[in-house]
Design a protein that fits this description.
The protein is of the alpha+beta class. The chain has 3 helices and 14 strands. The strands form 5 sheets. Strands 11-12-13-14 form a 4-stranded mixed β-sheet, with no helix packed on it. It has a 3-stranded antiparallel β-sheet with strand order 2-1-5, with no helix packed on it.
């Protein structure tokens, strides 16, 4: 229901249309029409939408980003979609890394595979495959759209992978992350 406002005795009064009573001499009109309300000096009231000051808005943003980065259930798709707010691994040195936590390192997304304390000797890479899993941009895994192979990485039968500009066809799912180059896995997991 519409609301109207009017200055009465120096104070702003706000009322719903069905609460306004218009006095004309001795007569009182209950539930007047909108035209009668406006002719009596009332104006339609539109509630102002207040916004938080920028400093408070920034605090809210930081809190949301912090809560998002503390999650351990972020899917690969979510991590890729919101990669701009993922904390860099370098900023987390000396902090506990829970299984499932997502970080960025050297422009790539990584997921914690094994709980540990972040330190410079355990940076996300092939050398720390037991601790970190690389998150890839979704590719179809076809000859036209092969999946970039970046160990440590699990491979799946029937999918195509590319490493050093060579396309490989996976002949057997690995069931776990692999740390070797695909060239070293020909015959075991892949074929050219």
């Amino acid at each position: 229901m519409k609301q109207y406002t009017k200055i009465i005795d120096g104070k702003a009064v706000i009322k719903a249309a069905n609460q306004i009573v218009i006095r004309m001499g001795r007569a009182e009109i209950y539930q007047p029409t909108e035209e009668m309300i406006l002719n009596d000096g009332w104006v339609e009231y539109v509630e102002e939408i207040t916004t938080l000051p920028k400093s408070r808005m920034r605090i809210v943003q930081e809190l949301v980003i912090k809560q998002w980065n503390e999650r351990t259930d972020i899917s690969d798709d979510e991590a890729l979609q919101y990669s701009v707010i993922v904390y860099p691994w370098e900023n987390l040195i000396s902090q506990e890394m829970a299984v499932g936590k997502v970080v960025t390192h050297n422009g790539e997304l990584w997921r914690v595979r094994q709980a540990h304390t972040a330190s410079t000797e355990y940076a996300p890479s092939l050398n720390t495959a037991a601790l970190w899993e690389h998150i890839n941009i979704a590719h179809a895994g076809t000859t036209e759209d092969p999946i970039p192979y970046m160990p440590p990485m699990e491979v799946f039968e029937g999918k195509y992978y590319v490493e050093n500009e060579v396309v490989y066809h996976c002949i057997r799912s690995s069931g776990t992350t692999l740390t070797h180059s695909l060239a070293a896995l020909i015959g075991s997991y892949v074929e050219i």
